[in-house]
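subagent[fold] <- orchestrator: predict structure for attached chain, return tokens only, no commentary.
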Amino acid sequence: MLSDLIQKSKFICTTADIWSGNNKSYLGMTCHLIDPITYERKSFVLGCKRIIGSHTYLNITETMTCMTQEYNIHYSKISHTVTDNASNFAKAFRTFSTSVKSTQSTTLSVGDLNEDGSPFEDSDVETENITVVDIGQIFTISEDQNIDESFCLPPHMSFWTLISRSTVASDKILEKCGCKFPIPVVTRWNSLYDSSLKVLKYKQQLTKAFDDLHLIKLKLSEWTFLEEYCQVMEPLAISLDKLQGENNSFLGYVAPTILVLRRLLISFTDLKYCKPLSFAIIQAIETRFNYILDLSRPESKDFIIASISHPKFKLSWSDKDDSDDDFFDSICNDNVFTSPSESESRNSNLANLQALSFLNLKKKDLDILNDFPVIKEVFLKYNTTIPSSAAVERLFSKAVQVLTTRRNRLSDDTFQMLLCCRSKYDL
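subagent[fold] -> orchestrator:
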């Protein structure tokens, strides 16, 4: 069924990553496509095959090729393969990509991809474009900041530590607040923001609970710090949620989201404590996504075409019609694409005429693509790609439930079949 569906689709996107458990390593791949009639995103598991030995770029290439060949997927059908920024994946595509040209690489990876070897080139460590940031220095008092000397954070997160280890404390918090509080997890991007946001939501109840639990109450300056932290991190958390989505996320979301995020962070000018944090995020965005901010660079081509061909953004890269209004309005402009004169229109070819009509249409539903076959073809080619490899990470979350300590003698084929059954193919 999946092979037939892939053969009928003009474009597909795949994601790939490596997971290790019980001293075994597996490379997982997922497949994503768009129904050309309903424009619904469909996601499937291609497999999760064992990798023997080191995670070298040769091993990765061989395993990925084996999986795509099982489904008779020709490389020309795959619009993009989305992976993390590990150097071994980058080298695999840099070396074996069939469309690599001498002047331009199709691997959209930020960082140094020169042929010079490095001690990490065959590892799955994300070594590309890593910037080490000293968090302590970010919040160091600078000469141009007048920070209240009474501001100080406790040496550890005593509240979260206590409720995660003590059932008595957890029950007391449940009694006072009527809910449980999430614990920050280092492997989840937004967990600290989500946890802090909930603390602020139940500020009054927690103040009373702190007395019962004999915890040191937060000072006014510390509550202000949490409020500013959530204010700064909110647009970043929203951006990550949008780009890590599957069903309603497309490659065309990347450029508008990055531009909106940077502009929102720049607009936070009244911060007292978290201004250094805002500056650090802005600097990281400008470094890692410089090819998005400078749209004249060749690497930005796919992102530009994907955004323009998406009815939601077109040329304005804004939205005024749905729940995303507050987020994307920050880069909203009312520029209307000027139609050419009648004589120029007569000389335009079909593609140009469709493009002009599409860009001037006010509707933003995907269904309008049915009226513009040329634009629809461009949309499917570039927006079949999903912005992140989160889908394969979700596959690995299920793999943990299959390959448990008591089932470590499962054969590789049995493990893969059980994982596919648990995923029900459709993610």
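orchestrator: received. Logging for downstream: The chain has a mean pLDDT of 81. The beta strands are 12-21, 24-34, 41-51, 78-82.
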